[in-house]
Amino acid sequence: MSGSSTSGIRTVLHPVSDLGRAKGVFAALLGVPPSNDSPYYVGFEAGGQHVGLVPGGGPQAMTSPVAYWQVADIRAALAAAAAAGARVTESAHDVGGGRLVATVADPDGNVVGLLQDGAGATPRSRARRRLDTEHRLAHDVDVWVATASADGAPYLVPLSFDWDGRVLRVATPADSPTGRNLAAAGTVRLALGPTRDVTMIDGTVEVLDIDALPQERGDRFAARTGFDPRALTTLYRWFHITPHRIQAWREEDELADRELMREGRWLV
Predict the structure, then answer these.
(1) How many domains does the chain have?
(2) 174-185 tens-digit pLDDT
(3) Residues 6+ apart with CB under 8 A from 146
């Protein structure tokens, strides 16, 4: 349509309770296998549209499908919607590859998604990367945790986390390889995001017994991650990770300015 600010709905996300069963159903409905297949997200490309399956509704806590309208200027679209009476429920943020997404609620509470591609055509500034990194820390739920044993054997696992603005909080069995490595080494490397939109965090580790954390912080962790280690019979510990170095980059053109934090201080 001439003059329209959107080129139509290109992406629809569905919250699902059983990712394996939903993946089979949508593969049958769409007639194609997943183009993205992970424990945290399954996506399909069919008929020029992207269909995504989000376990548990993801960090947005979706309770129903959300259609994302493709726009040329997501911030202008958000401003126009807000001025007309919509409520911004998720501000514009980068989800990788230069793609920006946001959501608004209409006056009846219906959620509408907005999506802008091509935002990453040029390298991001360090300031932009810091904003993207802080958004990811606040909204992502899982992080890759890389440790090594005393004899140098590497170990890599995904763990749920909570970020309080100062430390990342994870929990894992005290006697697991990761638990033993974290306690012994006192250092760790973490990774957020896909391989073409990397946030790498090096940090120091503080170990806490499972009952040493104030209840409200444990409750926050459980609400955010959907997992409460305090309720399990296996002995878990909390591990508080304080970042001292953070790097963020996408492609080769962002390698030069990838260091955002050094010795615990933001460089921007």
Answers:
(1) 2
(2) 999 999 999 999
(3) 154, 155, 156, 188, 189, 190, 191
